[in-house]
Amino acid sequence: MSRISVRGFAVASATAVTTVGAVVGVASGNSLPANGDNLETTAADATLLADIPVGEQAQVQVASLTQQADAQAAAADTAARKSAEEAARLQAAKDAEAKKQAAEEQAQREAEARKAKEAEEAREAEERASRSAVRDAGSFSAQSSYTISEVQAIARQMVPGDQFQCFSNIVDHESSWNYRAQNPSSGAYGLVQALPGTKMASAGADWQTNPATQIKWGLSYMNDRYGSPCGAWSFWQANRWY
């Protein structure tokens, strides 16, 4: 079989196109020289298809087609690889954006939770400050007796303003503001009907005669057990006792 260079074969094929009906060697990627002298120079070093023995021309054409197929396969592989790389890049960018969004949402939820907690803490601090700002039972001078108006005036100075109405509602139902009220069947005593009445001794030894001492004990009881007088009033409404 005659020796054929890839470049020379391309020129020879171009020269013999009317003979074989195809350009051989296109897959090599070499373009034909535009200058006629260059073409002649190239052709001088080439072997024309017509110069190849007839029995070997088919083998040369098969080799050319194989070369073209290999080039096309290589081009397809390159395109597929670039497509896969681009898809991977786009997916990575999408994943990164999703992670960024998730992180921002998590940060927002945490910020909202912190803000809610701070607001709750501020509210509780305000309530504590309000409670500590009211007058203590010991700041009132003891009297031999008290009218309902006087007892209510003491309560207004001892119970936080936002809790007074709830406290008043309970006292209305329990004793009608009679600091000497006593339940004959249970033994409950005083404004808030402590059961037994001796419980109020923890607030002061004068618990039987001093409404301020009874208010002090009742307020402490409502705060400790129900969180506030309003919490105690809600329970009272549902159960008719507290």
From TrEMBL:
Task: Return the protein name.
Answer: Transglycosylase SLT domain-containing protein
- Entry superkingdom: Bacteria
* Residue span of region Disordered: 90-136
- Spell out the Basic and acidic residues composition-biased ranges: 90-134
SUPFAM superfamilies, per the entry: Lysozyme-like
Q: Residue ranges of the Transglycosylase SLT domain?
A: 165-231
Instruction: Extract the InterPro entries matched here.
Output: Lysozyme-like_dom_sf, Transglycosylase_SLT_dom_1
